[in-house]
Specification:
Order of helices and strands: EEHHHHEHEHEHEHEHEH
CATH superfamily of the largest domain: HAD superfamily/HAD-like
Protein name: HAD-IA family hydrolase
Low-confidence stretches: none
Helix content: 40-55%
Largest sheet: 6 strands, parallel
Mean pLDDT: 95
Organism: Kitasatospora terrestris
Strand order of the largest sheet: 5-4-1-6-7-8
Keywords: Hydrolase
GO molecular function, one term: hydrolase activity
Number of helices: 10
InterPro entries: HAD-like_hydrolase_sf (IPR050155), HAD-like_sf (IPR036412), HAD_sf (IPR023214), PGP-like_dom2 (IPR023198)
Structural class: alpha/beta
Shape: globular
CATH topology of the largest domain: Rossmann fold
CATH architecture of the largest domain: 3-Layer(aba) Sandwich
Radius of gyration: 17 Å
């Protein structure tokens, strides 16, 4: 089977950190947490997201607070989304990977019903064997979603020749739990310092990530 990449969306193929920060600060305001700079956010952020909010508040958010946080985030993110763009070089890398006879898919924790039109809006749908977003409640980990994604691709993809490229420690942890490899990109939600402890390669550009994926799946 061909070498395969499972791509993350937010913070990886999609450069949306300014929108994420704006949406997060809108959410923080609902519980009295001061706004953050981008670097402060990247240094603090973690998944699952309720744990991130728990650390900021110093206690577990109530159910009402969690719903208010989640709603405020998504309302503001939707407002800011039109200004988001693809990460530099992403389109060329996607095109080149397929042109070389390899395959790729997309798995995001962004809501599936919103992800599909967003990917289509950038003209990317045809580059992927499969596009999956989050189905169900927000705020959780990617591991279970990745297992289902790979199960759906089982007849087309060899786990031994598959690499997940993402921007969060949770991406790598999900990949390792599913028995595939991972490469983490520093341009998204986490600082390099937070990524290096996971035990997978960490790179500063998507071009480096793809080149590494090519080598380790050959």
């Amino acid at each position: 089977m061909r070498s395969h990449i499972v791509w993350d969306w937010n913070g990886t193929l999609l450069h949306d950190m300014e929108a994420v920060l704006g949406a997060s600060n809108a959410a923080f305001a609902t519980v009295g947490v001061a706004p953050m700079t981008l670097e402060e956010y990247r240094a603090q952020y973690e998944i699952p997201i309720p744990r991130f909010y728990e650390r900021l508040l110093g206690r577990v958010p109530s159910q009402a607070e969690w719903l208010a946080l989640d709603d405020a985030f998504h309302v503001k993110y939707t407002e800011l989304f039109p200004a988001c763009r693809l990460t530099d070089g992403a389109l060329e890398l996607l095109t080149g990977w397929v042109a070389a006879g390899r395959s790729q898919s997309l798995l995001s924790m962004y809501e599936h019903a919103k992800l599909v039109p967003a990917v289509e809006g950038f003209g990317l749908t045809g580059h992927f064997l499969r596009v999956d977003g989050r189905r169900g409640a927000s705020g959780g980990r990617k591991a279970g979603h990745l297992a289902l994604h790979l199960e759906a691709l089982a007849e087309q993809v060899d786990p031994g020749r598959t690499v997940l490229i993402g921007d969060a420690a949770d991406d790598a942890e999900a990949a390792l739990e599913s028995g595939i490899r991972a490469v983490l990109y520093t341009g998204g939600s986490h600082t390099r310092e937070k990524l290096t402890g996971v035990g997978v390669p960490v790179v500063d550009s998507l071009a480096e990530a793809v080149a590494l994926a090519e080598r380790i799946t050959a």
